[in-house]
Design goal:
The protein is built from 13 helices and eleven strands. It is of the alpha/beta class and 302 residues long.
């Protein structure tokens, strides 16, 4: 196992870096997860090469995700993926509603099956997607939306600027999150916003319950970064834009009970009929108040 000389995010010295995990899900190349005490980011070292990453997302991503998501996500086809993510879409719209202008131009980076975009189109917004996955991008184009393989391809098409740029669980995959966000700032119309979500490294299954099976599951070869509130604040400040961070909880008490009992994903809603939705909602809010929820929401503008 090689050790980093500096933090790849903030540049802190090797003495600030420590090993978090030596087992990385999906890795066969001796990689590990490290933690930087200076900026509080966790990161994969060494990261995937450009060639490895391109191959992974073009040909392997859906099957890889299908092995990880249990019953909580469907990655074996766009139609089923859309249906499986409807509650997730509704949760996200709760954060987006106040930022949506009438007839907005919206870009989603990493739009997968397009489940976030189709209702926005139906509501009168103009939507564009970016999706490197061959399976999902083809489906989005068949639906009739412009969909590009990358920001570079979007720029070459010269499609103009946007009122809202969205990306969900994308930034943890990318080599340079600061440059990624700075480039998006240049794509905003006046008054526009970037809204994104990333996993919270300080979620309850890690920091409260310490579930061993979850630790073997959550550190994964496709994620370069694991952000906390502190490390995400570092990224937002480094862009030169104006940012804020909100907190949310995606997974419910039922999911956590299944992790504690069975050591595996797939528990969303499993016990809700018995526990009641009120208990599920109270649990979600308790984790948010304790800052041990599983999702960080970044909002950024110039």
């Amino acid at each position: 196992m090689s050790s980093p000389m500096i933090c790849p995010l903030c540049g802190a010295a090797a003495c600030e870096q420590s090993v978090v995990a030596t087992t990385v899900y999906g890795d066969t190349g001796g990689r590990a997860i490290f933690h930087c005490a200076a900026c509080d980011v966790r990161y994969l070292h060494p990261s995937l090469s450009a060639e490895e990453e391109a191959k992974f997302y073009a040909a392997e991503f859906e099957s890889f995700m299908a092995t990880r998501s249990g019953d909580d996500g469907v990655w074996d086809g766009p139609e089923r993926h859309i249906a499986a993510n409807e509650l997730r879409r509704q949760r996200r719209m709760g954060h987006l509603a106040r930022l949506l202008k009438p007839k907005a131009r919206i870009l989603e980076i990493g739009c997968s099956s397009g489940f976030m975009l189709y209702p926005l189109v139906a509501a009168g917004h103009e939507c564009v997607g970016i999706e490197p996955s061959g399976v999902f991008s083809s489906y989005v184009r068949r639906y009739g939306l412009a969909c590009y393989a990358s920001l570079d391809e979007l720029a070459a098409a010269d499609v103009g600027n946007f009122d809202l740029i969205l990306h969900y669980y994308v930034m943890e995959h990318l080599a340079d999150p600061v440059a990624f966000l700075q480039r998006q700032l240049g794509l905003l119309r006046p008054g526009g916003r970037i809204v994104f979500e990333v996993p919270n490294a300080n979620d309850a299954l890690t920091t409260i319950y310490g579930v061993p099976a979850y630790a073997r599951f959550i550190w994964v070869v496709s994620h370069r970064w694991y952000f906390s509130e502190r490390s995400l604040a570092h990224v937002l400040a480094a862009t030169g834009g104006i940012g804020e961070i909100a907190l949310d909880q995606r997974y419910d008490l039922s999911n956590h009970l299944v992790w504690l009992r069975d050591g595996k994903p797939g528990g969303m809603g499993r016990f809700t009929a018995v526990l009641g939705q009120e208990i599920e909602d109270q649990y979600r809010q308790a984790l948010i108040r304790a800052r041990r929820c599983d999702t960080l929401i970044g909002i950024l503008h110039s």
